[in-house]
Each structure stands twice: as C-alpha cells, then as structure tokens.
Amino acid sequence: MAARRSVRTGSDRGQVAVEFVGMVPLILLLVAAVWECVLIGYAFSLVGNAADEAARAGAVKGDGACRAAAGEHIGSAWSMEVDCEPAGDVFKATVKLKIPVFHPALNFGTITGTGGAATEKEAN
Questions:
Q1: Alpha carbon distance, N-terminus to C-terminus of the chain
Q2: Is 44 left (phi over 0), alpha (psi -120 to 50) or beta?
Q3: At residue 87, what are phi and psi to the nearest 5 degrees?
C-alpha cells in the first residue's frame, strides 16, 4: 500500500506573525487596564491611611501635626488636599487625592478619605 500525501492548497506561512501582531494591542490594553486598577486601589489605600494618621496626630498635637501626618507617606505627585478640624470631642481629618491615570501626575476625579480620633491632651 502506498502512503498518501496531502496536497496543501494554501500556505500557512507567516500565520503566527499575523496572529502575534493582532494580539499585541489587546495584550497591551489589558496590561494598561490592570495597571490603572492597581493605581486606583493604591490611591484608596493611601487616602484612607493618610486620613487615619492625620486624625490621630491632630487629636494629640493639633492642626499642624494633622497636616504633616497626612502628607508623611504620600508623595507630592499625588496632588493631596487635607482638611483638619476639631468637632467636639473628636478630631476629624479629610484627605482628598486625585485619581491617577497611568501615572500619579496625570489624573481625573478625586478620592476622599475621612478619619476621626478622640481628642487628647498631652501630659506635661
């Protein structure tokens, strides 16, 4: 019995290269979307932590310490705004960060974090 040979009518030559070129933009778009989600999640983490630390420092040492504590762990590229005020027996801090787009210097919208701590007096 003779073995049959298949005859190819078209060529698959270069098919892998075409598929690769077609998929690269989709892969890059996916990577960019994941990166943006990471930045937004990190911004939420930063704003919450900064508000809590600011409120705690403000409850003990006042408004100046509140603003300093809020900016202690946040870089200048994040465009932070801080509002510190006593409200009765609670010292409240509100921190706002601009939502980053691919880099903290490029942004849209704002994330707001609030924190509060019971007002304390330092012992002399």
A1: 105
A2: alpha
A3: -135, 85
Q: Which 3-state string (H, E, C) describes the chain?
A: CCCCCCCCCCCCCCHHHHHHHHHHHHHHHHHHHHHHHHHHHHHHHHHHHHHHHHHHHHHHHCHHHHHHHHCCCCCHHHCCEEEEEEECCEEEEEEEEEEECCCCCCEEEEEEEEEEEECCCCCC
**pLDDT per residue as tens digits for the range 36-75:** 888 889 989 999 999 999 999 999 988 889 989 998 888 8
At 39, which amino acid appears?
L
